[in-house]
Give the backbone structure.
Amino acid sequence: MFLNSFGTNGFLLLAAFLLFSGIIVAKFSSRWGIPSLILFIMVGMVIGSDGLGLVYFHDAGTAQIIGVFALVIILFEGGLHTKWATVKSVALPSLSLATIGVLITSLLIGFSAYFLFNFSLLEGMLLGAIVGSTDAAAVFAALKERNIKAKMGATLEAESGTNDPMAVFLTLSLIELIAANDGSIWTMIPTFFVQMGLGLLFGLAVGKIGSLSINNIRLDSSALYPILSVAFALITYSITAFAGGSGFLAVYVAALVIGNSELTYRYSIFQFNEGFAWMAQILMFIILGLLVYPGQLFTAEIMGNGLLLAFILIIVARPVAVFISLIKMNYTVKEKIFISWAGLRGAVPIVLATFPIVEGLGASRDIFNIVFFIVLSSALVQGSTISNFANKLELVGKKKDVPHHSIELISMGKTQAEMIQFQTNRESAVVGKKLYEISFPNRANISAIIRENRVITPYGETEIKEGDFLYILVEAAYKERLKKVLEERVPRPETGVDRDTDKDD
């Protein structure tokens, strides 16, 4: 499969080349405003058998396994960084988009494919189901560090993290109906609710067990805690899938629970998972790019069909689904238009498109190629214009204040001490006070203050200001008392700042 004539050395050389390519692609993706998935896929297509011929890869089953593994890692990382306080305010609309929205999108695209092209009704519906859901990897990457209003970002992220179960259910059900050539999809509706229920239940349970384990198991090295978190992500998906539930939903819910809990070595866990998610994205998109044959993809028929369906998806199906799903949900017309435009397609539809190939359905290769072209069109057109679209619709919030600094500590698992990071906001009670005026626990000491990327050495007369990052060393037994002091709020007059983007850890 990989450079067989070169053996082990050739494989390692290729792995290094792909990693370097991924890093360079990520760098230029940000600079050019092109979604990284487009460039990653292009790398795969260039080195594939129809390109430079470095790698010959046509195993859809292997691509499917790699894709599912990568999606688990990406969903887990996205859930870790999602603030529950923000998500719970958009839980109902996000759930509506993830179910009703996916169903409406799938039906509209399915009927379009049936009437416009040489597909049977079930084959058209299968194509619609495959592209019916937005993609977590694409959405998380598109919104990361962009100053989109928090309400919009939370809605899109929660939708993309929870809409995979509906798309997977519809896809597998339609494949089963096509393969069996009988039966009714209505008999499978109870299965969907079982999958959603089990996914939610297992996600909550494993998330709680995971956070308790991370905090209470004392390991010899702090480097083991991030690995432990990944193990919980994989076991969450596996046991939920074995039980007949939605593994993707369970992983996202478990990550929400773990990410919003007080964690030992929180910084290390988050940083490791972010890097691992990037690696998973690079691997997944390059593998999916290898699975495509440009000679088959860039034909007049596939390009014409793909562009027409992409147009219907972006301009008709997605907006109709959004506006119906968000009826009486307290969203303005501008916000609905933006949510419609930001519904990116990415790895999930491509991975789902491998299922018909694995099952050997007659129209599977045409479906895969059309889906691939739809994803490329969506990522390129929508993904590269999200920020400009938000500006035009006046849905830009305060610039996200992401700290470009860190304080690393030697493992203190046996000393029961932790370094806590906390960012103050306008309503923090400690803002405006000097350190000697704040009733910190006796076993808690501020080690450093980061203000506008400058390190402030704290002493008694130091005044805390809005936006400061406080790094506080505290013994584990006093962490709850410290948390109460830090989370105390004092209402202050409005200053025109968008509070949706205030953030603390």
